[in-house]
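Working notes for the structural subgroup meeting. M.R. asked for a predicted model of this chain before we commit to crystallization trials. I am recording the input and output together here so anyone reviewing the notebook later can reproduce the run.

Input as submitted:
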Amino acid sequence: MAGALHGACDLKTLTLDSLTAQQFGALRKTEPFLLTDAASVWAGWPEGAAFSAAFSGMELPLRNATALAQHGSAGTTSSRADVGAYAAGKVGAGGGMLFSNHAEDASDTARAFMSLPPVLDGVGYDDIFSVGWDGSGVPFHRHDENWLGLVAGRKRWLLAPPHVRETPLTDPCALSAPVLSRLGSSSSAKNYAPLAKELVECEQKAGTILFIPSRWWHATCNLASDDGSRGGAAAPPALLSVAFGQQSLAGYATELPRLHAAALRGTDYEWLEHNAAAAVRAEHNGFEPLHLAAKGGRLQAARLLLTAGADVNARGQMEFTPLHWAVQRRQRAVAELLLARGANLRAQDSMGVTPTAYAAHVGDVPMLEYVLGRGGSCSGKLSCGKLARMKGHAHMVEWLQVRVEDGALRKLTPERLRAFYTKHNPEKLAARPNFVRNVLKKNSDERLLAKLTKAYGESPLDLALPEKAEDADAAGGREEL
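Returned structure, recorded in token form:
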């Protein structure tokens, strides 16, 4: 199925109106597919100057194609740009695309011009909004299932099944099966032959929806319009791609087993209390009931499920634990409950991200401060600092510069620790001149932070002192904390 397609699509193609719930249930876990005649979903979409006006004032991360290729599927944020100005061609001329999966303002505006296809209700957990001129794209990556409707322009897709192990971070607009074969033969560390063999290509056109099953690899390249134009007053730039997926939790709950639906909705508590034990570890589409309770912020349901024997560290979609969901969804009360019941703050999902780092990913400073105080770490494949910069959370980046630096807690300097003890235990400092130096020598930073936080109710880093050069403490014997 590999090779240049010149406008063809190697995916199974159905019409949106003909897709039944039974068909969708059979296909959603097995293969990607294309739905045609879907323009009615966004029948009221504004065109040309109306589009620019509707989205004017909304800023999204501008993802540079080179940075995306260098840093992986999530990429980095080189800058932010106004959606309306980008669509009008006034910014972003140097390349890159606007992309966000937490674009609340843009998503709310987009919803006003579209209606959710009932058969796709419940797919995906993020709103996705992207706009890209021709030549921009996203390298190979994968995630949970989702659907993406192309409102305008054309988009080239490269897809591969989950069992493929090696994918390149090369510019997707320059990839094809022959190129992948050459890349594999030129690198002893990577073997792209299986990818080249399994590669499925599809050119998506405006008015269609492409569905991607969970964990399928995919890369995209935005293309010029059929007539080669670069925009105009009558329509959005024809090479402009807008992808939008959404989930309705209420609709999703209608297709869940009763226990899962009760956990997600936060209802049916009496029944839940008496019946949870029988199926508390039951899995449905990668979710145990506790995952859904954490995702929906249902504190009472989470408490009942844990009492009934739910695994507080159960793995689900994308290797998320319930704590991953609670932090990613800003559910502080549920996060506190899970941690009190033994949730693992160091657990990494399939992308190597910890629950702690997800607090930075969504820009939730109070949550990050809380989980760090409970012993969380910003280290990992994707650190707090990298994720905050990637998502364009300037307030989080500024906060991290005081508390966290590139994935590691800042060094506990003698000055910072001395100030902490001056506040909490000045007698100990007065009695032992070498106390600070010796405590730092004996304990790792994270061990010491955990001890002090437990003993005094706050961390030395809560003082938010500026870092200074380490001053000279006299040498001496080792002291107990």
